[in-house]
Backbone:
């Protein structure tokens, strides 16, 4: 999801009520148009394909792949192989250098930056045609559940704490002079003529920070926003990336003394800001003293909704996190989407799934258990089965052609003629001994093991390693809500090992054949993952791009998360191994 520096229009501002009325009308109209398209998904998909082929037929890519002779999706599949970002990159670099008519007929107005699996920053071309036909319809519709069920959230600019909003006054550019920025740093009103496109919360007092702060000082910017927000009646938090939301309670406690002092003194980041508020500061101190900690629910008792991804690793910790913000807080799932394009958008209050955005792109899917290759056979939206997981491939007018976005989705159900999809994780695999484990399989196994043992997880990560030539084994680092006994860790390890075997035949075979040793579990304190997240941000990575990562093979990343102890050891206690030994049976 993306943002703008303009306000959606709020009551109390000049023209605010009228602007808010028009915003709500646009949001509900776009949702209605998407729902109307569900009546004939195949026709909608044919129209999208025809539109992108006709519009981009005379581009360099279109001529090379014979766009003018393609008449069907089968023709398109034969003409264009499935491609990832690396295959698109040479074409994109030509565009970024200023060459026109390469992938798209219209010139990109901006390039989104997005971290790939290698950590390198992608350049995603964003054209006016893409925004008009692919992006804005799904973007507006995504806010419909919030506008419909929590209308008060939109009536004040400071009712929403938008954690991802991060405008830049001097953005970096490509060689062609176009901005190369995060998706949350684009003003759609100014750049694409969409004055209603601002996300909720972007006009809050902390939307544009009123004191000097460097563009790369992300930790200080987060502090300043929280310092301002504690003096407002915040009712909704928007994070999209759930790791940002999960870090907020930790940040409140970490920065609490500084926040209270600045509220009392009337300063902001050490700069004079306004009259001090000693009564508010005293009240904040009383809350912390009474509860013994600081929770968002204490500071913002009228909190009503959190808008972020609710699946993937976040499914492990969101139930407990929700309680941190208040027992009555609703979780609204953000769209299943990437900087390259949308896949699904929640049109109602479903807890995790989004309806396929049939009008945005041509969608193809492939079994998630298979490796995705240039000629992998694909399925259309109407061929997907409930409960199954698939690689996502899409094509749209903005220059992404049979693009393998790298995500796996799970089909929740079919509703109103389209599949409802939830994000299942990245399509990367951990494969030291033929186990071929995916994010989604490990997350499900962790969830089941936690439920079986009655142990609650705040977060988890793992790595597989072989020490001194020994048989490789997985080590899981888990942060619980309470300290685990040695017996509990052993029971959890046993349950987790069994569930991984059920989730993956490759893992089961590798364990039975002695190619993988019994996994180990090491426990971390409850704040370990929040600390690790904040340290990543402190190193200069934008908060939106520091996401939950299940597989952490990099030794440096692992050491930063788990501490200096040897792999497999816990902080002050021993690691738990699966109760059965090397090569044991389930």
Residues:
């Amino acid at each position: 999801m993306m943002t703008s520096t303009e306000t959606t229009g709020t009551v109390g501002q000049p023209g605010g009520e009228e602007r808010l009325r028009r915003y709500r009308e646009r949001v509900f109209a776009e949702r209605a148009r998407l729902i109307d398209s569900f009546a004939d998904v195949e026709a909608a998909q044919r129209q999208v394909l025809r539109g992108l082929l006709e519009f981009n037929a005379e581009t360099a890519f279109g001529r090379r792949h014979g766009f003018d002779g393609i008449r069907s999706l089968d023709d398109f599949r034969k003409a264009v192989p499935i491609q990832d970002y690396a295959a698109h990159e040479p074409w994109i670099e030509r565009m970024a250098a200023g060459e026109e008519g390469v992938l798209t007929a219209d010139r990109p107005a901006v390039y989104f930056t997005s971290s790939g699996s290698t950590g390198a920053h992608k350049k995603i071309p964003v054209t006016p045609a893409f925004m008009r036909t692919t992006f804005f319809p799904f973007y507006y519709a995504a806010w419909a559940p919030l506008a419909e069920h929590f209308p008060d959230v939109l009536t004040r600019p400071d009712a929403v704490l938008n954690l991802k909003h991060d405008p830049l006054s001097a953005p970096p550019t490509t060689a062609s002079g176009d901005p190369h920025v995060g998706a949350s740093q684009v003003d759609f009103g100014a750049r694409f003529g969409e004055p209603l496109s601002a996300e909720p919360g972007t006009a809050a007092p902390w939307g544009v920070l009123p004191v000097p702060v460097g563009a790369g000082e992300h930790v200080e910017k987060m502090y300043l926003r929280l310092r301002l927000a504690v003096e407002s009646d915040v009712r909704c938090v928007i994070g999209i990336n759930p790791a940002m939301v999960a870090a907020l309670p930790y940040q409140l406690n970490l920065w609490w003394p500084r926040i209270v002092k600045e509220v009392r003194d009337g300063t902001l980041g050490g700069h004079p800001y306004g009259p001090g508020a000693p009564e508010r500061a005293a009240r904040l101190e009383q809350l912390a003293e009474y509860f013994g900690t600081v929770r968002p629910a204490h500071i913002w008792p009228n909190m009503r909704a959190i808008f972020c991804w609710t699946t993937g690793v976040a499914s492990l910790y969101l139930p407990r996190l929700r309680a941190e913000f208040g027992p009555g807080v609703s979780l609204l799932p953000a769209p299943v989407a990437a900087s390259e394009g949308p896949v699904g958008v929640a049109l109602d209050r479903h807890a995790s799934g989004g309806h396929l955005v049939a009008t945005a792109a041509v969608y193809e899917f492939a079994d998630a258990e298979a490796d995705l290759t240039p000629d992998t056979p694909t399925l259309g939206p109407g061929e997907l089965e409930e409960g199954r997981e698939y690689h996502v491939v899409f094509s749209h007018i903005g220059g992404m052609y049979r693009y393998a976005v790298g995500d796996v989705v799970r089909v929740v159900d079919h509703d109103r003629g389209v599949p409802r999809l939830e994000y299942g994780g990245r399509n990367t695999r951990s494969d030291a001994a033929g186990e071929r484990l995916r994010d989604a399989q490990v997350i499900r196994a962790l969830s089941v093991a936690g439920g079986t043992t009655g142990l609650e997880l705040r977060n988890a990560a793992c790595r597989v390693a072989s020490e001194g030539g020994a048989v490789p084994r997985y080590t899981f680092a888990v942060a619980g809500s309470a300290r685990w006994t040695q017996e509990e860790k052993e029971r959890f390890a046993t349950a987790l090992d069994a569930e991984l075997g059920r989730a993956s035949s490759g893992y089961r075979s590798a364990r039975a054949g002695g190619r993988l040793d019994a996994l180990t579990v090491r426990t971390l304190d409850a704040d370990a993952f929040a600390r690790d997240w904040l340290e990543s941000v402190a190193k200069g990575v934008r908060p939106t791009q520091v996401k939950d990562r299940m597989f952490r093979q990099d030794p440096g990343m692992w050491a930063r998360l788990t501490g200096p102890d040897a792999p497999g050891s816990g902080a002050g206690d021993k690691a738990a191994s699966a109760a059965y030994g090397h090569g044991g049976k389930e």
User: Anything to note?
Assistant: The chain has 18 helices and 22 strands. Residues 313 and 443 are 6 Å apart (CA to CA).
